[in-house]
Amino acid sequence: MGMQILLHRTLRSELERNMKERGYTISKTAELSGMNPGNLSGILNGNPPRAITIRQLDVLAKVFGYEQGWLYELYPEECISEGKVSRPRLIPYLVRCAEIGRQDCIEIVSSYLLENPKNLVILFSVAEQLFESGKKEKHCHFMKS
């Protein structure tokens, strides 16, 4: 059983492994990331664990010296649990994946979402946000010219 746990990579196991490798405590990691130590402790040790936002994951990637998008392949576990989808976590995740080009993550989550027609509204929300942000970027670029 111990071996099975080691083979199953999770967001939390990867965060803890990176902290341990660098000798960081929760306090030190929180200080470097600007996160509240209590929130970080809740993410790592809570029962049930506190959900981590995609922004927090991006900040932790920077703290540990990784590119943006680090551990995104493990993030769906934060968004989909026991068949229930957390829109407040999933939509920003998918938007962020699109922004940084993590098509692999979008495809995996999209195929899951398409299994249930009720989830189509989530994909439309993501598309709408990307469309709006694209319009703003074009507008801002036009204004700078």
Structure write-up:
This protein has nine helices and two strands; from the N terminus they run ααααααββααα. The protein has 145 residues and is an all-alpha fold. It starts with a helix and ends with a helix. The relative contact order is 0.09. Mean pLDDT is 88; it is low at 1-6 and 138-145.
Which key phrases capture this entry?
about 140 residues; mainly alpha; two-stranded antiparallel sheet; 9 helices; about 5% strand
The portion of residues assigned to helices is 55-70%
Low-pLDDT stretches are 1-6, 138-145
Strand order of the largest sheet: 1-2
Give the amount of beta strand, in percent: under 5%
Anisotropy-based shape: globular
Q: Main β-sheet: number of strands, strand sense, barrel status?
A: 2 strands, antiparallel
Note the gap between the termini.
61 Å
User: How large is the count of helical segments?
Assistant: 9
User: Can you write the helix and strand succession as a string?
Assistant: HHHHHHEEHHH
* Overall residue-averaged pLDDT value: 88
Q: What is the structural class?
A: mainly alpha
Radius of gyration computed on alpha carbons: 17 Å
Write down how many β-strands occur, each being a DSSP E stretch of 2 or more residues: 2
